[in-house]
Amino acid sequence: MGVMVAVEGLDGAGKATVVVALRRAVEARGATAATIAFPRYDDDVHAALAGEALHGAHGDTAASVHAMSLLFALDRRAAAGTLEGLRAEHDVLLVDRYVASNAAYGSARLHQGIGEFARWVHDTEVVRFRVPAPDAQVLVRVPPATAADRVRSRAAEHPDRDPDGFEADAELQARCAEVYDQLVTERWLSPWWVFENRHTGDAALTRTADAVVDAVLRAASAPESSVRSDTIET
Fold it and tell me: What pLDDT, on a 0 to 100 scale, did the predictor assign at position 231?
């Protein structure tokens, strides 16, 4: 069974870029890697409904924190078999957004820290829906203002893709960044690593990806007691 690594962060943090760098680092070691990204707007009806709601469709659906979270959770529930298959076939499975995103964004929308809503997400997705828990998680950390600038730049380059309701809410993104940091501190769901995405060049990106992959693979092969305490920043 391969190692499953969830890559988390704000909209515009650079998660997709980091996933590519991590995959290259895995393959440079002679291992195999697969990737999958959530929400699967083009492949799952629940994700499609959530995406439409974020752009104003389906009445008051987007206003309900729990309704939106359930749609995102059902997307992952539908993909549970695919995730298990990819883990069985590859050494490392890299997931762009996962369960922690639901906990972070929902908690931020409710102006909560890690508490009741995050527990509900865990109980719904991991316990009830049996979505596989990741072996490790990577937070791609950037200042919220930087992430917002990237979202605006992306929208300018692709006029057919307007920022959704979450992406356009600067205050929500700032609160979400705080919740993500709490998730890291509490080692929520699995061990975390922090990837400071400063965009200092391809060489620095590669070095950081190498360090994260080395640490994750070491932790995955260590006794459980060692894994739980192995959280680093790079």
Answer: 45
What's the half-sphere exposure (Cβ side, CA atoms, 13 Å) at 164?
16
The domain segmentation of the chain, as residue ranges, is 3-38+83-233
pLDDT at 109 over 60: yes
Contact 140, 18 (CB under 8 A): yes
Q: Would you say the pTM of this structure is higher than 0.85?
A: yes
- Phi/psi of residue 7, nearest 5 degrees: -105, 120
187: phi then psi, degrees, rounded to nearest 5: 50, 50
**CA distances (Å), origin 166, targets 2, 56, 63, 179:** 32, 12, 11, 15
CATH placement of domain 3-38+83-233: 3.40.50.300
Alpha-carbon Rg for the chain, nearest whole angstrom, is 17
Secondary structure of 65-104 in HEC code, one letter for each residue: HHHHHHHHHHHHHHCHHHHHHHHHHCCEEEEECCHHHHHH
CA–CA separation, 182 and 21 (whole Å): 25
